[in-house]
Amino acid sequence: MTDESSSIFINVDSESRPVLSRSVSESGVSRAHNAITLQAKKNTVLKSHGRPPWYAEDGLPICDAFVVGIAGGSASGKTHVARQIVEKLGSIPTIIILSQDSFYKKHSPEEVKLAHANLIDFDHPNAIDMPLFANCLKDLKACKQTNIPIYSFAEHQRLDDTKYLYGAAVIITEGILALHDPALRALYDLKIFVQCDSDLMLARRLRRDIKERGRTVDGTLDQYLRYVKPSYDNFVLPTARHADIIVPGMDNGVAIDLIATHIRRKMKERASRFRPHMAQAGPPTPLSVPSTPDSHELLEPYENLILLPQTAQLKGIYTILRDKNTPREDFIFFTDRLATFLMEKAMEYLPYRSRTVTTPVDVEYTGKEIDAKYICGVSILRSGGPLERGLERVISDVMTGSLLIQSVAQTGEPLLLHLMLPVCIRERHRAKDTWVFLLDAQIGTGAAAFMAIRILLDHGVPEDHIIFVTFLVARSGGIGALRKAFPTVKIVCGAIDDSLRETWLEAIERGDGQIEAEARKVWVVEPGMGHIGDRYYL
Fold this sequence. Notes:
Blueprint: E1 9-12, E2 18-21, H1 32-40, E3 44-47, E4 66-72, H2 78-89, E5 95-99, H3 109-116, H4 130-141, E6 146-152, E7 157-165, E8 170-174, H5 182-185, E9 190-195, H6 198-212, H7 217-236, E10 245-248, H8 253-270, H9 275-279, E11 305-307, H10 312-322, H11 328-347, E12 352-358, E13 364-370, E14 374-381, H12 388-394, E15 399-407, E16 414-420, H13 423-426, H14 428-431, E17 434-439, E18 442-443, H15 447-458, E19 466-474, H16 479-485, E20 490-497, E21 499-505, E22 508-509, E23 515-517, E24 520-526, H17 532-537
Parallel strand pairs: 1-3, 4-8, 4-9, 5-8, 9-10, 11-20, 14-15, 14-17, 17-19, 18-19, 19-20
Antiparallel strand pairs: 1-2, 3-5, 6-7, 12-13, 15-16, 21-24, 22-23
Helix pairs in contact: 2-8, 6-7, 10-11, 11-12
């Protein structure tokens, strides 16, 4: 059972023009649909080139997300400025635009009636849940996930549904009071105020409220004169003194170019090389593996690396899987069988409690049952996919999710391109009670495994609740750094190979002379099993 996250993804193409692509999975009541659609215009996740590592070899984050706060009057062009900055940034990975409009307070039935009569001041600072706004932004800045509220302008109410956000390298926060609260200002790396002519702001607000929010002309004008204009004079305009940059509400191309250049420079300063260190992180000489058939624990420093008993049957399965001439049907059959063995072994490391049952002959028997509130599986696409069949055989109704982590062709650096996690991980109060089987075909340099574990920790999953299940581990690869950074993560594997070799895969040309795949740096486990995902699915 897979539970997708709810997001609008805007992919930035090579010419830096945002192209809207539909990638939405909504949960909850149908009345939330219009509110989500409206908020999607402001609260968006923009992805272009993936998110590089945001942590060091010790597993701890080394840089926060870069946060930009944009304030200004209602309809001054804040959202437009935010989107123009995104266009100019181009190749900057994973940008979130976060709108203040999501954080209006929840209203009582009486307040909802007053709101429909335009008798509530939504431009006053007291209308915004500033502590919640600051907490959500603080989590995103610290590279953690958050679930922001969804506010319906048509119903004048905060809905019970929330929107999941995670993985931003750059966060752009916009709202009329974005610079008003000291707790918010403390989180910004760059503060911007958009200054615009009052008549132009009124004209823009009339068009927006009538077209998008179902308001009348009289209602919009009454609200503007009664609340919007006084709030702008008393609360919004004074915050301009906190801004690092004042941007005009129109004809602001030069200012946006300067802002984008500054952000790119800051992101370049935060960049780091990670994978080459992981590839060389293993012990200088291979450690010996216990040779007894029933031995499944390795010597230090691999105390939490569990190896399946090296029986003749298991060695026979690996012989079949390593043979490049094995027919695909046999490869799939024995891969599924091996995955089941691994998952059964991994199940031993879940918590259990005693349970007494009555047998069919009316005799009491005291046994064990799983003592975990939530259990799920997360596979690293697509080599982790072949392990999912084994997980489903062992736990038939298990929730599953996935991570797409790929490498930069020139450097081999890992990039997080997409994630689709079960709801028990996306909600932090449930994540702390969740046990996760993390699935990948092999651990070579360990870069993908490192990133996947860091993602789960960012979501609040306890480190000792993560059980990494894999077919192969390269003894001389990144397993040493992985175990040093995350000492309580258990790794269950079926075999350990000695060698990890750095090489280049040549570019692949199609018959028409076009490049199908670019040349790229890779680290190959030897003797290995090849590209397990490709052999399983193709």
